[in-house]
Amino acid sequence: MAPRARSGIVLSPSAARRLAELTATAGRPQMLRVAVDGGGCSGFQYRFELVDEGAADDLRIETDGQAALVDPVSVPFLKGSEIAFVDELAGAQFVVRNPNAASSCGCGVSFSI
Known about the structure:
Layout lengths: L9 E2 L1 H14 L4 E8 L5 E8 L7 E5 L2 E5 L4 H4 L3 E7 L2 E7 L5 E2 L5 E3 L1
Parallel strand pairs: 1-6, 2-5
Antiparallel strand pairs: 2-3, 3-9, 4-5, 6-7, 8-9
């Protein structure tokens, strides 16, 4: 299990492996920015973005030398969550396993609290 940040947010080994693959392909370090935006079919939605660098106030979560970044506004919505990478029949994608979500849509991209 990956170490938990003070917020309880963790970057899973599967997500760290995928970030390492993306870094190797890009030829430069890639970090995963995870944010929560208003919208989606359930009220809030996750946004994932690959970035080269973070902002000074980002929460940085590391596992196996790979990093995810969360902006200060999104941290409370993600408290205690696991950021993972899944490769299933329905597709391969980064996902958030969020214990704060009261419900989520079928695709897992949007949620409500």
